[in-house]
Amino acid sequence: MNAIRGTHRLILDDMRWFLKLFTLITLLLVLAYVAVGLIFDVSFPAAAFGPMYGGICGFAVSGMVAIFPVAIGLGSTRTQFMKSFYLNSAGMVIGGITVLNVIYVLMHVLHASGILGVTLYQPGQLYASAYEWYSYYWIDLMVGFFMLGLSAFVTVSWIRLGFRNFFILFFTIALGLTLFITLSDLSGLIRWITETNSVLLFTLLGAIGGCLLLSTYPMMKHAPLVRKGSKD
After folding, report:
1. Interacting residues of 56 by C-beta distance below 8 A, sequence separation 6+
2. C-beta separation of 139 from 198 below 8 A
3. pLDDT 10s digits, 139-179
4. Transmembrane ranges (predicted)?
5. How distant, in Å, are the alpha carbons of 37, 86, 119 from that of 108?
């Protein structure tokens, strides 16, 4: 097995593990909701996307922290690793969001038929209260890609900067954003957000996530196999 196939297989196995684990967690959570709704004959809204979004973030962190040094140690180049990581990351998001939306469809059918009073919240409800599969699925995908990109970017920044420098940078950015929000007139921005189509807003959010993900390539191209310590 050459280095390219070996790297891809290593990351693919990790992606499959995360997808299976968090699919199981999500299913158990939904089954608990269904059991409560049927046994006690109650109606209530609930959320089931947390575990899957957590799995997407977990895969991004695991890939950069745990899989990266193993792949390089086995003969992969950093470019090969990043290409394979991007491909499998997209698979993780698409696979996880597809699983979520299959569950959403089944729950919607049960609720519409009057069998079950439990409903599952989706980010797509910010776009339309009536169930629209394609719009809901697309918005879920965009949220997934944003979470993936943000998690990968934060993890790589931590690896390259070290804990101390990363914490200083994070605190500085957080303080700057707080002052900007407090001292600026954001009424125009808020009005634009409320008046803009929600699908477009979430698409922009997904694009930002994609840019954050791709920005990790130059950061990891010469990254050390061991991240900087807290004193570096």
Report:
1. 92, 93, 96, 144, 147, 148, 151
2. yes
3. 999 999 999 999 999 999 998 888 888 889 888 988 998 88
4. 21-40, 52-74, 86-107, 136-159, 166-193, 199-220
5. 14, 33, 7
For residue 133, the one-letter residue type is: W
Task: Dump pLDDT digits (tens) for 197-226.
Answer: 889 999 999 999 999 999 999 998 877 766
Reduced to 3 states, what is the DSSP secondary structure of residue 46?
Answer: strand
Residues 6 or more apart whose Cβ sits within 8 Å of residue 117 = 37, 41, 42, 43, 44, 111
SS3 229: coil
Q: Which two tokens stand for residue 25?
A: 């967690």
Which band of pLDDT confidence, cut at 50, 70 and 90, is reported for residue 76? confident
Is the separation of the CB atoms in 158 and 169 below 8 Å? no
DSSP string, 18-32: HHHHHHHHHHHHHHH
Domain ranges within the chain, ordered by starting residue: 3-220
Asked whether 47 and 118 are in contact (CB, 8 A), the reply is no
Give the amino acid at 194.
T
Helix (H) or strand (E) holding 119: strand 119-120
Question: Quick one: how far is CA 98 from the chain centroid?
Answer: 13
Chain position carrying tokens 């970017």: 153
Question: Per-residue pLDDT averaged across 59-76, rounded?
Answer: 91
128 by DSSP, 3-state: which?
Answer: coil
Q: What backbone torsions phi and psi does residue 230 show, to the nearest 5 degrees?
A: -70, -20
Rounded Cα gap, residues 186 and 200, in angstroms: 20
